[in-house]
Amino acid sequence: MSSSRLDEDRPLTPFFGRLAFKPDRFQTEAIGAFEEGASVVVTAPTGAGKTLVAEAAIHLVKLRGARSFYTTPIKALSNQKFADFRREYGDDAVGLLTGDNVINGDAPIVVMTTEVLRNMIYADSTALEGLGVVVLDEVHYLQDRQRGSVWEEIIIHLAAEIPIVALSATVANAAEFTDWISSRRGATKLIVEEHRPVPLTSQYMVKDRHREGAIEMFPVFDRRGTKPNPDVLRLTKKNRGRHRRFAVPRRLEVVQEMVRRDLVPLIYFIFSRAGVDQGADLVARGGLGLTSPEERVIIRAKAEERTAHLSADDLAVLG
After folding, report:
1. Does the global pTM surpass 0.85?
2. What is the mean predicted confidence (pLDDT) over 100-128?
3. Helices 273-284, 251-260: inter-axial angle, 10-degree rounding
4. In angstroms, rounded to a whole number, what is the distance separating the alpha carbons of residues 248 and 213?
5. I need a surface site. Which of 4, 118, 153, 187 has the fewest CB within 10 A?
6. Is residue 68 within a helix (H) or strand (E), and if so which, with residue range?
């Protein structure tokens, strides 16, 4: 079977027929390999459409009458995929298993944090019976010193007849990683996509104390994108001693500047839960006025929809 074309007699043709776009080469190649019984490792830039491969695999497995497990490294991602799959397949067809929630755990499609699956394997859970695919989203977490062993243990100890779909934008040594999976689990196909559909540029933001705190942004690299921007190097060399001219903008200042430059919506990464809560509260109290009254009504309705499965106690904890 050719993995580069969509034949009319393929069971996934209706799945692709619902899409508003033509799948890319790497997507059809990965899905074709999975159809033929192989595990797949898909590495592609953020926004390229890796998740479509997992969704097609789950659709195919469901047609075969088997179950699917979709694992994520964090609860927030699990909650997001849970909502996505419910919209696609209906509430009864999708379950959620995290440290906080157990919802419809016997469903044909179950979203869970990776540790939950690892624990199932060690407990020899009956939930693993009839399993047709395991999706390991953000599989580059295997490189994490604290939690990486969880992904490794799943790849080693999950029954070899269950194919996996491993997704990542940043997995290191993808070829060696795929060879290792093949040595543990059998046929595994590596699919690499290098085209970045969403342009990525790196900017260096500073606050200039000599210009009444004006915020400036400089490209991190030169025009060719191969060497550091000499202007940034000069700036950092000068910015030494007790009376420094340049400072790091505060979180609210960063958001305000991004709004001023029309660079919203944006994602601000903060590497602690307490910091995230503090940052969100800071921006909320900052009076930026980023939404209209009509948009705020829609946002509130969406938030209530996405948290409808949480208990009153959970909602209280989340504030």
Report:
1. no
2. 94
3. 50
4. 10
5. 4
6. strand 67-72
